[in-house]
Amino acid sequence: MNTPSALTLIKNPIHGLAFGFGAGLSPKAPGTVGTLVAVPLYLLLLQLSPANYLMAIGLSFIAGVFICHLSAKDLGVHDHPGIVWDEFVGYWITMIAAPAGWLWILAGFVLFRIFDIAKPWPISWCDKHVDGGFGIMIDDVLAGVMALAVMQVLAYWLV
């Protein structure tokens, strides 16, 4: 598998974004490291109004389809484990309307990683049958939606 160097990420902004500003170069658990890098970016996104937060997620998804497709095509691998832009978007979806506080940020992180790793249906189906940049993105979007649903149930019962 062709993994780009840190220098390649700096020189090629598509790879830089796809690999989460370098998070995807982690030799162990790049998806988890990518999700970890998504947390401070989430804190920045929190400054937006709810409508603008949703718009930012939508634009990040659309950009991600192209970014992930181009990076994967250039690397010659359908879904290189180092491509973590999809983890960013999935985590941000998880955190839609989440209650404030570090406990909820951590809960969202854990829930998203569980759904992203376990890949229950329909995530597993999409992971196996949907190709290209959309395929790279959609399984993490669905993991984010499932984690969002659990977060909202927890928030309803606990807050």
Could you list some keywords that capture this structure?
mainly alpha, 8 helices, globular
Reconstruct the topology from this structure.
Elements: H1 6-11, H2 13-18, H3 30-45, H4 50-75, H5 85-94, H6 102-118, H7 123-129, H8 132-158
Helix pairs in contact: 3-5, 4-5, 4-8, 5-6, 5-8, 6-8, 7-8
Task: Report on the architecture of this protein.
The protein has 159 residues and is mainly alpha-helical. It has one domain. It is 72% helix and 0% strand. It contains 8 helices and no strands. Helix 5 packs parallel to helix 8. The protein is globular. The mean pLDDT is 95.
Concise account of the structure shown:
The chain is mainly α. It is built from eight helices and no strands.
User: So how many helices?
Assistant: 8
Number of separate strands: 0
Percent range for β-strand residues: under 5%
Percent range for helical residues?
Answer: over 70%
Rounded mean pLDDT is: 95
Instruction: Let me know the largest β-sheet.
Output: none
Quaternary structure state of the chains depicted: single chain
Number of domains: 1
The shape is globular
Structural class: mainly alpha
The stretches of 5 or more residues where confidence is low (pLDDT under 50) are none
* SSE arrangement, N to C: HHHHHHHH
Specify Rg, calculated over alpha carbons: 15 Å
Distance linking N and C termini:
46 Å
